[in-house]
Structures are given as C-alpha cells and as structure tokens.
UniProtKB/TrEMBL annotation:
Pfam families: TetR_C_11 (PF16859), TetR_N (PF00440). Residues 36-55 bind DNA. Residues 13-73 form the HTH tetR-type domain. InterPro entries: Homeodomain-like_sf (IPR009057), HTH-type_TetR-like_transc_reg (IPR050109), HTH_TetR (IPR001647), Tet_transcr_reg_TetR-rel_C_sf (IPR036271), TetR_C (IPR011075). Gene3D superfamilies: Homeodomain-like, Tetracycline Repressor, domain 2. This is TetR/AcrR family transcriptional regulator. It comes from the Bacteria. Keywords: DNA-binding, Transcription, Transcription regulation. Transmembrane segments: none annotated.
Length: 196
C-alpha cells in the first residue's frame, strides 16, 4: 500500500502561517524598521520567493498577520448608553494600538501609507473603513432614537472622537487617561447636542 502523497495546499497553508508568525515575532522583537523580507523568510524557513509570491512587501505580510489577530467586523457596543459605548470602544482601540504585537506593527504600516497606494487601500479596506462605518452606524442609531441632533454631521463626529487617539499614537505621545478619554467623549457629544 503506497503512502498518501503530501497535500500541497496543506503545505502551503503551513508555510503561510509560519511566515505570518515570523513577521509578528520579528516586529515585536526589532520594531517595524528592523523587519525585512529576508529575515521573515529565514525565521519561517521559506524562501524570499515564496513570500513575494503571496505578498508584495513586508507591510502586506504584517497587515495580514494583524488582520488575522483582530476582528475588524466585531459589533460596535450598543447598550443603550451612547457615551459608555463610545468610551468602551475607544479605550479598546487605544489598548490595541499600544499593545504589542499590534501597536509596533500598525505604526510601521501607517508610516508606509504616504508612498504605497496599494497598502493604503488595503489598510482602509481591512481596518479603517469597517471601524469607521461601525462608529457612524452607532451614532445613527442614537440619532434615530432622538439622542443626537437630526442635523449632526456623524462622519465628522467620528473623526473628532478618534482623531485625538491617532494623533497621540502617531506622535508617540502617551495615551489619554481614562478620565481624559471620558472628557473627550463628553465634549464631542455636547457639540452634537446629545440628550440623555
């Protein structure tokens, strides 16, 4: 009886997972700048050619590795208390941005966006747009309930809420304290004429 031939798809998936794990490990150890495709290949036990067959750059490798570890389509909290829901979601974002391995990898990926349009499109599709849409939809729900002014610009409100988080993250400033985050949420909601 002959042995079953190896399944190439299973072998490919094993290599892909090894590459993603190696990219995250290296980024955690050395930071984004210290990661190279050569180093990923060596750590994963594959050739550079294998990596470039699936991804155009290390940014894409790390983006997929991060996407695999986070749920971009997780439901936005809706407990009926808008301020508490925004606060909970925003503190979750800060925790994600400031905790390895996500934080170092994501800040590195963001630094590439100014000169890599394809990576920019992928980051928006996988991370930015789903979260932005979920936040706008949560505000729309409050608006339908009469909690927010009918003419409030909800997309601008989301930028007002999350802009300070990314500002502090991008400039390597300490994240807001819990009290300051609550003040940010309260301030933005007051500009939207939020009613309890």
């Amino acid at each position: 009886m002959s042995a079953t031939p190896p399944n190439p798809q299973r072998r490919s998936e094993r290599s892909r997972q090894a590459i993603l794990a190696a990219a995250i490990e290296l980024c955690t150890e050395k930071g984004y700048v210290g990661v190279t495709v050569e180093a990923i290949a060596a750590r994963a036990g594959v050739s550079k050619k294998t990596i470039y067959r699936w991804w155009p750059s290390k940014g894409f490798v790390l983006l997929e590795a991060l996407a695999q570890r986070t749920d971009s389509h997780a439901p936005f909290p809706d407990t009926g208390h808008l301020a508490a829901d925004l606060y909970a979601q925003m503190t979750g974002v800060v925790r994600l941005l400031t905790t390895p391995p996500f934080g170092p990898a994501y800040i590195g990926i963001l630094s590439e966006l100014h000169h890599d349009p394809e990576l920019t499109a992928a980051v928006h599709e996988q991370f930015i747009t789903p979260r932005f849409t979920a936040a706008v939809n949560r505000l729309k729900s409050a608006q339908r309930q009469g909690r927010l002014s009918a003419d409030a610009d909800l997309e601008l409100a989301v930028e007002l809420l999350y802009g300070p988080l990314y500002y502090r993250y991008a400039l390597r400033k300490p994240a807001h304290t819990a009290e300051r985050m609550a003040e940010l949420v309260d301030h933005v909601l007051r500009t939207l004429d939020c009613r309890p």
